[in-house]
Every structure is written in structure tokens, then in C-alpha cells.
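**User:** Once you have settled down, spend some time on the protein underneath, comparing sequence with C-alpha cells, and judge whether sequence predicts the C-alpha cells.
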Amino acid sequence: MAKITLSQLRHSYFPNPRGPEDYALKQIDLDWNDGGAYALLGPSGCGKSTLLNIISGLRVPSEGRILFDDKDVTHLPPDQRNIAQVFQFPVIYDTMTVYDNLAFPLRNRGMAEADVDVRVRQIAEMLEVSDMLKQQAAGLSPDNKQKISMGRGLVRDDVNVVMFDEPLTVIDPHLKWKLRSKLKELHQRIKATMIYVTHDQTEALTFADQVVVMQEGEVVQIGTPVELFERPTHTFVGHFIGSPGMNVLPCDVKNGAAFFNGQQVQLEGEIVNGAGGKTEIGVRPEYVSLGKSGLQARVRKVADVGRHNVVEAMVGDQKVAAIVKGEVPNQGDEIFLDFKTEQTRLYADGWLATNARGAA
């Protein structure tokens, strides 16, 4: 396995890029530690696949370097990077048995057959496909085919990194949870460096120890699932992660205080000096409650999502969502909304602009 370092990485599909708008990947500097589980998360077109192709060697970046354990591999082809990749659609040989599919990467590297057998059966047991080893791969269900495809990526114990490019795309929704759990379990047992690319926040947050959130070719936050949820450093992270996403509300800043719809809103801490441009308040629906005072609002609609209700209310012409357990108001009711102070933040031009109370 390997530590992966991306140093001053940028990429453009134009031969002579003139400005930031010409770059599919803005400057990226980050380290992925040996044996970690990481996710690249973001919407279609944000640069996830471009970055994955650069790490795998399918594409050479316009600028910067890729290091595996401090060795520069920027210009090495894929076969010299010692990587394994699992794609959106299962990559297996239908004419082979499950056993031979799993054995193929090992036999291709000249491993002794006795050692091949031990490793194949280990992986088959982990994937819970031991009873399928003699079956032809062509007859497997889509989820089992993807299991075998994953197994082909995991069967080698000498790879620097295993990369998953949206591997659950073709899997039925009711089976996705099972495969996500299995992949997490496999990582904990194998301890391989794994990078998982997805636009699905649930897949990223349940698999990864660290999530890299991307938007328009830029890394906007790197953190644990808890960090991304509890303290998004960019409004995009707050909006993209969570269901419903973070309330992002336009505000005015005067004399070191934030005002929404003409009323002062208490923030988690002091506003960063120089915060200007487009200013907004961010607060997750989980931290908006109904009270007897606060921001006056009118209920627009109430959605029962099972574990709780989502109350959507209008403060002036701005929509605010609140997650409510227990009794809920009716559509059209006048209510008051209260924001939990330590979870209410100011953002300037999208970026976090308040210091947590007590922070330096």
C-alpha cells in the first residue's frame, strides 16, 4: 500500500488555458495516508473522474505531481503504478468461472497456484461468494457480478491503492446498503488504501474515514463525515450534504452582527475580520426549532418522512426548513423559528466567516 500525495495539481483540457475557468481541476494539494479509506464526493462535472484518471495514470496532469510514497509517478503509465480499479459496471470474464475470475490477476503475475487458491478462497469468503466459485460468471445477478469485480480489485495484496469509480451505479437500491457495508468491512480487514468516487453522499459518508468534497474542480472541504455535517466550511458542503441540506439565507452584516429579514441572528462566534462580499447565514434544519419567540414565519408545508417531520416555513420571501419531532403545525399557521446559536454561522462569498466560540 502507499501514501498518495497530490502536489500543486491542476488540469485543463485546453492546450493554452488562460484563466481559472479553463481548468477542470483547480490547484489541489492533499495527502492520503497509507491504509486509509477516502471518498471523492461531488456532483457530476465537478472533476472527480478527471482526478481519478490522473491518479490512475490514464491522464497526465497539466501541472503538478502525483507521489506514491514520495516517489514521483506523474508520468508513469497505469501498469507501472501498481493499482487496482473497480468501475461503474462490472468488469469480469463471463466465460470464466467465479474462481477463475478472482484468480486471474494473481495468475497473470505468476503467483504459485497453491498461493492463488489460498488468496481466492480468502476473498471469496469475505465477499460471501464461496458457494459460487464453480459457477460461470455469465449467470450471476448484477450485484454478484459487481462483487466479483470488487474481488478482482481486492485479491492482490501488493497494490498501492484500490480505486472505486461509482461501483454501485447498476446495483438495485435495496442491495446498495449491503454492498456498502461489505466494502467497509473489507477495508477494515484488508487495510488497503482505498479511494471511492461517488456523487452519492450516503455512499461517501458510510464508507470513508475522510471525505474530499469537490465543486467545479476545486476541493472545498476535507473532513470526517461528522466534521462535514457539523461544521461545513463552505455553503456548497452544507447544501450538498444532509437531507434536507443546510438553510442558506441572505443576510446583512452591520457593526459585527448579522441580520436576516431585518432581525439580528445570534452566531456561533465572532465574524472574521474583513468578511464581505455576498454574506449568508447557514444553519442546518436539525438546529432550527419551533418556539414562542424568534423569527416570525408562516408554514408553507409539512412533510412526514417517517422518523420526523420537515416543516418548511417562509420568513418574508425566504424558505427555511426545520426538522421537527412530535407535534407539528398546520399549513398556513404563524410560527416562530429559533436557530441554535452554536450551529448558526456566517458565510462570505460561500466560505465560513465565523470563529467558533473559544477558538483562537
Observations:
- The chain has eight helices and 22 strands.
